[in-house]
Amino acid sequence: MSDIINILPDSVANQIAAGEVVDRPASAVKELLENAHDAGASKIQLIVKDAGRTLIQVIDNGCGMSDSDARLCFERHATSKIHKADDLFAIRTMGFRGEALASIAAIAQVEMKSKLHDSELGTHIIIEGSDVKEQTTCACPNGTSISVKNLFFNVPARRNFLKKDSIELSHIEEIFKRVALINYQTDYTFHSNGKLLYDLHAGNFAERISQIFGNSHREHLCPVNEQTDIANIQGYVSKPEYARKTRGEQYLFVNHRFIKHPALNAAIEKAYADVIPERHYPSYFIHISVDPSRLDVNIHPTKTEVKFIDESALFSILRAATRKAIGQFSLATELQFNPIEEVDFPPAPKGYIPKPPQIHYTPGYNPFGSTSSHSRSAQGAPIKSAAPVDPKWTSFFDIKSQTESKPDTLADKQTTIESPAVLPSEEKPSPISQQTPCLQLNNSYIVSVMPSGLLVVDQQAAHERILFERLTNRKSPAHSQQLLFPVNCQFTPADAEVLNELLPDLKEYGFEIGSIGQTTFVVTATPTDVKESELQPFFDQILVDYKSSMIQKFNNRAQSLCRSLAHQMAVKKGTALQQTEMQQLVADLFCCQMPTVSPSGKKTMAILSPEQLLS
Ligand code: ADP
Ligand code: MG
After folding, report:
1. 409 alpha carbon, distance to own chain's centre
2. For the CA of 103, the nearest atom of ligand 1
3. Per-residue CA distances from 275 to 271, 420, 613 (Å)
4. CATH no., domain 205-329
5. Is the pLDDT of residue 518 over 60?
6. For ligand 1, atom 14, which residue shows the shortest CA distance?
7. Residues 144 and 31: beta-carbon distance below 8 Å
């Protein structure tokens, strides 16, 4: 048989390679915007027609190209960004593979004008399906203007795969947002079919978020700011009460690059596990800065997937930083849009082995153990103190000063990483004295005063939060009270099976339950917050909640059980509370790690300043 192998011409090879890099107009937009950014542009214009089918134009005022570079940039593996293989681990630009323009030129009609800042004249080049049709000198502004016309003109199969214009445009818009969000020091405009969609001015990250997503985001977000040896983390996460039923605005960037990283995305979501309802998702805009040598961006042609050397440590840092931000800032009424300083992350020293941060905390108490500071609720159930009340609470603590102070670094604090630990009470001063008088409104809300304003606490949501943290942070089996008369409860065979599974957990939480027969259980002891007369509906509800959270694959079994128990055991709206009970409840709430939201994401309190009340 004669030889059958031949080397494909460059134009065909480029067309094949283009399939990886440019699969729809949005991917060409991404490459062109990134090139403009890499060229150091301070102003970038994006113009599209027919959702990028007929025209994608990007105009920048970046460094521009010389005549020969303008020709060379359309060759495959032509790049000014790396020179040798080692450079792959010191990448600070968006591009480096030198294949975007070659790919685009292989599947479109491209016209480019480019001029170096110190040149009199620029270059005009026309290239179609990898064929250079024309190259001339021309008068043009500093920088580069590149027009990509009739994308896929020579690849009908690809063209036919394109979705309708509205969908392709929304992909372009998403790409534009990703690039513009993190390059907040650059001016951007975006026109589609002659209409101005975005006009963004240089500013800080927070300003860019509100330019793109609207001013309401000021109220929705809390700042995250954490500096560690492994990474610097800056950005904003949504307050728990603004979680949504869909995963919407979730933006994770590393070294100015938008990335998709399921584990890190999960780290952020995990931080919200006990502060938002199930199947709700937070928004976030997080920028991770790491030493480029500890990051591999070359694992995927579009570079949205990356690999970190310190992945598991980063997971912990991100989760803890997010949690700290939610805990510290969710009370602040509006985000302070202060300029964000650029992080210049120092390279890790040679041979450096990163250590994940350690957890150091003292679990302060046995949730059902202390009986000394009990007071009786209206139903006779005692509301117990989460931590001994510090007698030194004489001066008030202004919550605002807490929200405005710069968060300590994880390394300094050495607090929570994996565990939702409660800080020891001496490290967590209550912003309110336990002697401060309280009033009860509609038997549902506790009203008190703080230096920064009027405090209104939702008694049910607050008690849920307190109980939830006691249950989850418990270090030994909870105390329980023996019932005078054991109570029998009856379940369906299926429910009885689930309950059997839960018995060991329930025992830990202070329930003593034995099964008698297939579907009957006898309860002999319960925690003190549970009413003996309502045990059957109590367990029915626990089973309903538990089954539904398991169906939804809410993956933390203990957490969903605690959430349900806290919900059931909490003092209800409409229950009259005595003065000491209200004071205790408020004091306990401020000892919580996440005092501002219930485990199901409901706000537990509001602080109204005189200005807010009187404006
Ligand atoms: P890469 O970005 O991976 O280097 P590209 O094919 O996107 O590869 O671009 C090739 C080269 O062309 C770049 O390395 C850069 O030197 C030059 N270039 C592309 N776009 C621009 C631009 N807008 N301004 C200046 N130079 C550019
Ligand atoms: Mg590029």
Report:
1. 19
2. 6
3. 8, 12, 27
4. 3.30.230.10
5. yes
6. 79
7. no
Determine how β-strand 232-238 pairs with β-strand 195-200.
unpaired
| CB distance 71 to 10 below 8 Å | no
Ligand 2 mean position, distance from CA 46 (Å)? 16
Could you tell which of 101, 142, 179, 300 is best to mutate to test the pocket of ligand 1, judged by most ligand atoms within 8 Å of the CB?
101
- What amino acid is encoded at 356 in this protein? P
Segment 466-476, tens digit of pLDDT: 999 999 888 77
CATH superfamily for domain 10-200: Histidine kinase-like ATPase, C-terminal domain (3.30.565.10)
Distance CA 489, CA 541 (A): 13
Q: List the structure tokens of 504.
A: 């060991």
- Measured from the CB, is residue 36 less than 6 Å from ligand 1? yes
Domain boundaries, the chain: 10-200, 205-329, 410-608
Q: Please give the CATH topology (third level) of the domain spanning 410-608.
A: Ribosomal Protein S8; Chain: A, domain 1 (3.30.1370)
Q: Coil, helix or strand for 330? A: coil
> Is there a contact between 154 and 12 (Cβ–Cβ < 8 Å)?
no
Count Cα atoms within 13 angstroms, Cβ side, for 595: 27
Q: Which residues pair with 134 in a beta bridge?
A: 126
Q: What is the C-alpha end-to-end distance of the chain, expressed in Å? A: 91
Of 421, 422, 419, 466, nearest in space to 565 by CA: 466
What is the number of the ligand 1 atom nearest to the C-alpha of 74?
6
Question: For residue 58, which ligand has an atom nearest its CA?
Answer: 1
DSSP 191: E
Q: List, for residues 287-330, the tens digit of each pLDDT value.
A: 999 998 888 887 776 778 888 888 899 999 999 999 988 887 65
Nearest-angstrom CA–CA distance, 117 and 525: 82
Beta strands of 9-89 (E only): which ranges? 43-49, 55-60
- Are β-strands 109-115 and 122-128 bridged in parallel, bridged antiparallel, or unpaired? antiparallel
pLDDT at 551: 63
Cβ atoms within 10 Å, residue 176: 24
